[in-house]
Design the sequence.
């Protein structure tokens, strides 16, 4: 076959491949953007639009977000609109459908026993050069079937850990939901009036073992950790064991304690593709996050098995809607810079995205006091 002919065929095949890839991307973008009209309804591009009202926009300057001593306090325009919220079922269903193109929470929420065996080598998601082995203890805690198999709930609450929850009196309202998701084993008993006490699923990043439970280095800390896990009473404990190097020992300590004390928790270990799938969904919709926070991960997963989603404790700013100081976590004195370039997360951008979804009825973002008279 002449060289020129082979070259021509290679060029034609390459052009066809590029065409089909672009056509597929265009089809996805069109489906994401065309619900009830030509405009993008539920995931804004967050690009500057000169004619757009800024009444609901966050001041993007770091000085305003960080709220330094000489910075203007964040005003109530940062908070979701106080007008009556109405659930947009059509929009919620469309979001669920499009997320399913990237991941299926029922499947991706956990690796199952048949997928791995003790001794298997796993490459960390954020450090592909580093590996760990599946221990016998971890293998024993892998579920046989997905903990979310065939589950569907009408109203779900996802509870973040922002200090915006303090003195909110939202506890009873949160507990009234059909399914309650919490993040990073945050304490509930001593804050129940504001954050509630019920837990259906809770996450546990390995770093929490060190930060909140003293690396289980003494009987005192191990006792506190065991009491927290016993309080879950059969809830799902979601442990991202293979995200990053450095947490393998803490994961192993935790799983051994669960086995040793026969704790009644249902463990789950997210699939190795989950985080990239979630990030891919948001990037496709022009939400340029670096790494999704636990809260955004949980919202994305919850769309699969929750009809109506309510968010509490999502507030990545040092000042509240009324200018009051807000703790980073409601339960400790941890301080972060929300816009730090070193942070793996993009919290203000995530909040802006969720606020937009709130305004369109896809979810409800609660940032104020809860009604205790109902």
Sequence:
């Amino acid at each position: 076959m002449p060289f020129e002919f082979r070259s021509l065929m290679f060029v034609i095949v390459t052009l066809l491949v590029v065409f089909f890839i672009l056509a597929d991307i265009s089809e996805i973008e069109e489906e994401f953007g065309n619900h009830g009209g030509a405009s993008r309804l539920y995931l804004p591009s967050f690009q500057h639009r000169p004619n757009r009202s800024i009444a609901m926009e966050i001041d993007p300057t770091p000085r305003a977000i960080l709220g330094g001593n000489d910075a203007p306090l964040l005003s109530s325009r940062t908070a979701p609109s106080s007008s009556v919220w109405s659930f947009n079922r059509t929009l919620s269903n469309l979001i669920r459908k499009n997320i399913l193109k990237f991941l299926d929470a029922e499947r991706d929420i956990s690796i199952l026993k048949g997928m791995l065996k003790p001794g298997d080598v796993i490459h960390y998601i954020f450090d592909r050069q580093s590996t760990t082995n599946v221990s016998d203890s971890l293998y024993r805690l892998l579920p046989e079937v997905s903990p979310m198999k065939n589950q569907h709930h009408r109203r779900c609450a996802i509870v973040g850990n922002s200090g915006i929850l303090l003195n909110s009196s939202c506890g009873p309202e949160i507990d009234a939901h059909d399914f309650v998701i919490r993040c990073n084993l945050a304490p509930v008993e001593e804050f129940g009036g504001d954050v509630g006490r019920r837990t259906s699923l809770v996450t546990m990043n390995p770093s929490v073992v060190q930060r909140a439970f003293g690396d289980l280095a003494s009987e005192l800390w191990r006792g506190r950790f065991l009491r927290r896990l016993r309080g879950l009473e059969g809830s799902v404990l979601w442990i991202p064991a293979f995200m990053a190097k450095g947490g393998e020992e803490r994961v192993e300590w935790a799983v051994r304690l669960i086995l040793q004390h026969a704790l009644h928790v249902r463990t789950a270990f997210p699939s190795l593709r989950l985080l990239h799938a979630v990030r891919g969904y948001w990037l496709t919709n022009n939400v340029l996050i670096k790494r999704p926070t636990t809260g955004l991960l949980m919202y994305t997963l919850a769309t699969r098995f929750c009809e109506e989603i309510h968010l509490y404790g999502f507030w990545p700013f040092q000042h509240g809607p009324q200018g009051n100081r807000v703790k980073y976590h409601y339960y400790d004195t941890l301080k972060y810079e929300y816009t730090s370039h070193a942070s793996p997360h993009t919290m203000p951008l995530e909040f802006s995205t969720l606020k937009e979804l709130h305004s369109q009825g896809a979810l409800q973002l609660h940032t104020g006091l809860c009604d205790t008279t109902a």
